[in-house]
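The instructor's notes for this session suggest beginning with a concrete chain rather than abstract definitions. Hand out the sequence below and ask the class to guess, before any prediction is shown, which regions might be ordered.
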Amino acid sequence: MNNEEAKTYWANIRTRQELIGNNLMEVCCDYPDQIRPIIDELLSHLNGYQLDQIEDLIVNNYEEDS
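After discussion, reveal the predicted structure:
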């Protein structure tokens, strides 16, 4: 993959992430009782390393200081 192809690839990934994120927000706003099943389904597709990354993100950015 050359440099231009790599840029296009990552731009497409970011676009897909944004679209999927927007769609998930719509579902969560329209069906707030579905938030837990959506989270559970998404997490079920992550491997151990990805789960570690998500956990670190939450702990380091969203946990309140005690």
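Then share the key points. The helical segments are 3-30, 35-44, 48-61. The mean pLDDT is 92.
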